[in-house]
Amino acid sequence: MAEQTNYATVIDGQMALPYQYLAGATGSKFIVALRDDKKILGIRCEKCAKTFVPPRQTCERCFSDLTDNWVELEPTGEVTGFTVIRYPEPYQPKKTPYVLALIKLDGADTPFAHVLECGDTANAKIGMKVKAVFADEPKDSLLDISHFEPVDD
Amino acid sequence: MSKKKSDQELIVSRQILSIPQRFSTGPVMGRFLQELRDNKRIMANKCPKCGRHQLPPREVCAVCGVEATDWEELGPEGAVRDFDIVYYASPDPLTGTTRDVPYVLCWVNLDGTQGDAPLWHLLDVADLAKVRRGLRVRAVFAEERTGVMEDIKHFEIIEGPSDDI
Fold first, then answer.
1. In CA terms, which of A69, A103, A144, B133 is 20 to 30 Å from B149?
2. A-contacting residues in B 20-59 (Cβ below 8 Å)
3. Model confidence pTM above 0.90
4. Residue A70's beta-bridge partner residues?
């Protein structure tokens, strides 16, 4: 180019992404029980002797229909794995840094991910005994459990 | 699956995620946008080999593959080459909200255009029956301009006779 004028600029913008998530019949019953009764429900496959939390309609091993095999679980469990979230992004459930843990509830065979509040993030340990703390306000989501916290043995 | 109608409460989560994004204009689109903002001029670039305009401008002529370095002002009046009347309220990618429908999108070949280089924009029109090819229109610029495509607010109809194309 003969005349070198730099016209290049960067335009900052926001892009909006509307979405909807349908929890389905099984997921809805799970969330409503968390919200209204502060109870954690799972679904059990007797054939495989496995209890799934969060619940699912079909056994992932034998494909049996488990629709009505509801069981109630204790709000206590054990950390089977965790990570410390340090990078802040919008839509995260807590302020960074926080611990996202895999928690296997007592009586369940599958762990599920939730926030672990244990003071300093360095306190998080695999094998830690934890219990669910329910949210004060209804959330209509898995965040009807606010977080898990350690319990003393 | 059970066929009977359920009176169970079903959970639906509806949200609009807002995602930050950055668009780098590059020098050619950058000049086009700055001319809109500072001078209310619609600038096309022109291929030095075949003479056709490109609007919005691109660095290289899409036909000849040579760098298109010449610039010319086009319009701001022109003729509708094609149009869409949009009835489906698709979400605005910038807000996630839906637009009022129906609205009209038009492709305008601005006066002075060599070849076929229509600019795509909204056409502000009260009576949809008036919209047709060849309609004479003019660009209406926004009062507050920030160097984006919306610096042209929309096109409006120039009253009077117009030629069909």
1. B133
2. 20-28, 30-31, 33-34
3. no
4. A43
Buried b (16+ CB within 10 A) or exposed e, A12-40: eeeeeeeeeeebebbbbbbbbbbbeeeeb
Q: Is the ipTM of this complex over 0.85?
A: no
Q: Return the residue in A1, A4, A5, A15 with the most chain B beta carbons within 10 A, the one to mutate for interface testing.
A: A15
Domain boundaries of chain B, sorted by first residue: 26-157
Answer yes or no: are the C-beta atoms of B52 and B63 closer than 8 Å. Answer: yes
The token pair that represents B126 in the structure block = 């009260």
Q: Which of residues 111 through 140 in chain B touch A, CB cutoff 8 A?
A: none
Q: Which of B16, B32, B66, B97 is nearest to A18 (CA)?
A: B16
Predicted local distance difference test score (pLDDT) of residue A3: 54
Strand partners, B74: B42
Instruction: Report d(CA B39, CA A89) in Å as an integer.
Output: 39
